[in-house]
Specification:
- The protein is of the alpha/beta class and about 625 residues long.
- It folds into three domains: about 100 residues, no CATH class; about 140 residues, no CATH class; about 325 residues, Alpha/Beta hydrolase fold, catalytic domain (Rossmann fold), CATH 3.40.50.
- About 35% of the residues lie in helices and about 15% in strands.
- The strands form five sheets. A seven-stranded mixed beta sheet has the order 12-14-13-15-16-17-18, sandwiched between helices. It has a five-stranded mixed beta sheet with strand order 2-8-7-6-3, with helices on both faces.
- Strand 17, helix 21 and strand 18 form a beta-alpha-beta unit.
- Helix 3 runs antiparallel to helix 4.
- The protein is elongated.
Length: about 625
């Protein structure tokens, strides 16, 4: 395919079906290099003779040691690293001394200064002690040991990461996230890091267990805490390194006692989506779905967490999971939601017929459950929530309805049992055309979903994209084989005229959409509609988001319907995010009532957050 020309046509057309990150970007912060500090020789040693019981003297010495490290770096990174360890030790001792003072306060106003110098010293030490990338692996620790520094790693438990899980670390404050409404960070002990793990393309199909549900390049929020410990070998400075998971823990254990953890939940998330191929994949997934097939699937943003309810986000046409960046940032920034939910993403090639993608999602939900909860002991997995935008809403709807033979009748007037096909192809078709509501899904949020189609498919850009879509070779081969083995007369006129693309299925006259609209949701499943209105002042019933009219998005029987100001990409507006949060709280409250358990006090206290609310989460 002539990719540069095709991409230019679609990107330049401002095709309204697409939804991306709405201008959010992440950039490396340009700072003066530490090596730029003039150094005629080595700087003087840090202040000596500080009173080990005086927090102010310890802080002064820690600051002097850190400044000495900055000056020494050009001459010797080893000496600079040693000064940084001195600064770390004194900053830790200062925190201990603050708490030991008569009338010591847990919120001593000098603590932020101690955290800051400790954070700067730790960041400098990790840079100076690493050759190239920061890895914190066995090789790094062995190199430190050869230089007389012992570093033990805290392992075990759900609150800390194993350094071996990561290929490299980057410092979160080396990056600036722009045009994102809210930034979720907190002050405290340690240095926030971006933990990165990569899988080569050749490894993707051979992955097993939970790793199969991690993205090819997975990014996590990490906070590193390094502090002196008396448990090292005699005569060598000894330290303990803990890599905390700030999504699971808000306080760190230290020699000075427990303290708040420095956190950055926003920068790693933005890095995950914006420093990846997802913006390009949304174009490839529409026009050349076969290329994306090997990457498509259900992905966890974080390792599986027992007793947390899954929320599965399903993007729309010409889109990717990056469309959910703002939504995920705000949901994970809410501690009450973060503590009760886990967030999963469904990536699929949007050019393929969406019932085929729905069958893939249905199978992926079953497969992931069989890996993380084979005994079906985790009741939270039976309370899943789906959030679908645009065509993703149609895929989500297919998780809560039963097909009977209604979909098969759109393809053939003959019984399915009479179809001649190989066992493999017959089974694939059975999964696409015949299904029951998925038992794990208890609530669906539809956002700008074209339940009755969209006129865009009949407009120029829709017809152009339809002509450019190249369906996967496996689907085209199956189609040709079925026609050859059964004869064209076995199938309906629509199937005989050609294999439909996703855009074909989104037209207002789509028989598939009319059939889906008649299928009722499973009893006990609640669904909600969020509908965009592009032009203010237009009556709701006559309004549109610019792509999907209100009449197409509206559903009778919805537990709630919210019309928000915005175009078709309204999934990440403040109004929409506030409504998603309200529904997620409602979901928690409902199951508290059904189980007869006391309602979670934190959930009961919550009220809908005002639009634009921000700030660090409570500690």
């Amino acid at each position: 395919m002539r990719w540069p020309r095709i991409l230019a046509i679609l990107v330049g057309s401002a095709c309204a079906f697409g939804a991306g990150c709405r201008g959010v970007s992440i950039e490396k912060v340009r700072r003066g290099s530490r090596a730029d500090v003039p150094a005629a020789g080595l700087p003087p040693p840090p202040l000596a003779g500080a009173n080990l019981l005086d927090p102010d003297a310890l802080l002064a010495r820690a600051d002097a040691s850190h400044r000495a490290a900055v000056g020494a770096e050009r001459a010797s990174r080893d000496i600079a690293a040693g000064y940084e360890l001195d600064a770390l030790a004194d900053a830790s001792a200062a925190l201990t001394a603050m708490k030991a003072e008569p009338g010591g306060r847990p919120d001593d106003p000098r603590m932020p200064a101690a955290w800051a110098v400790g954070r700067s010293a730790l960041k400098g030490f990790l840079r100076d002690s690493s050759t190239g990338r920061v890895r914190l692996d066995e090789g790094w620790r062995a190199d430190l040991a050869a230089r007389g520094v012992s570093v033990a790693v805290a392992r075990g438990g759900e609150s800390t990461w194993d350094p071996g899980r990561f290929d490299e670390f980057r410092f979160a404050d080396d990056y600036e996230v722009k045009r994102l409404d809210h930034q979720y960070r907190g002050d405290g002990l340690g240095v926030p890091l971006i933990g990165i793990r990569r899988f080569r393309l050749g490894e993707l199909q051979s992955r097993r267990g939970e790793e199969k549900y991690l993205m090819p390049r997975q990014v996590y929020s990490v906070t590193a805490v390094l502090e002196p410990t008396p448990d090292g070998p005699p005569g060598a400075p000894a330290f303990r390194l803990a890599l905390y998971d700030p999504l699971r823990v808000r306080r760190a254990e230290s020699e000075a006692g427990p303290g708040p953890l420095a956190t950055d939940l926003t920068t790693p998330l933005a890095y995950h989506f914006l420093k990846s191929a997802l913006p390009i994949l949304q174009e490839v997934g529409l026009l050349d779905p076969q290329w994306l097939e090997r990457l498509a699937g259900l992905y966890m943003l974080h390792p599986y967490e027992r007793s947390k309810i899954p929320v599965v986000f399903v993007h729309g046409l010409r889109s990717s999971p990056a469309a959910w960046l703002k939504v995920l940032n705000d949901l994970r920034g809410d501690p009450a939601l973060r503590d009760r939910y886990q967030f999963w993403l469904f990536l699929y090639p949007t050019g393929t017929p969406f019932p085929y993608s729905a069958a893939k999602l249905r199978a992926a939900l079953d497969e992931l459950r069989s890996v993380v909860d084979p005994d079906h002991a985790d009741a939270a997995l039976d309370r899943s929530v789906l959030v679908g935008h645009s065509m993703g809403g149609l895929i989500s709807k297919m998780m809560i309805v039963g097909s009977g033979d209604a979909l098969w009748k759109l393809a053939s007037h003959r019984p399915f049992e009479e179809l001649r096909a190989s066992d493999e192809r017959r089974e694939m078709l059975r999964k696409v055309f015949f299904f029951e509501p998925h038992p794990s899904v208890r609530r669906v949020i539809f956002i700008a979903t074209p339940h009755r189609g969209s006129e865009l498919g009949d407009q120029f850009i829709g017809r152009l994209a339809d002509r450019l879509i190249r369906l996967p070779g496996s689907l085209r081969a199956t189609y040709r084989a079925l026609l050859l083995q059964n004869g064209p007369e076995f199938f309906t006129r629509e199937i005989r005229s050609g294999l439909p693309t996703s855009i074909d299925e989104l037209r207002p006259d789509s028989r598939l959409l009319r059939t889906l609209a008649r299928l009722p949701a499973r009893p006990g499943v609640a669904f909600h509609s969020i509908i965009g209105r592009k032009r203010l002042g237009v009556p709701v019933e006559e309004s549109s988001d610019g792509v999907v009219p209100y009449a197409s998005s509206h559903l009778d029987g919805a537990a709630s319907e919210r019309v928000v100001d915005g175009d078709h990409g309204c999934q990440d507006t403040p109004e929409t995010i506030a409504e998603i949060r309200r529904i997620m709280r409602l979901h928690l409250d409902q199951f508290a009532r059904e189980s007869g358990a006391p309602r979670d006090a934190e959930v009961r206290r919550m009220r809908p957050a005002p639009v634009g609310a921000s700030g660090p989460f409570p500690r």
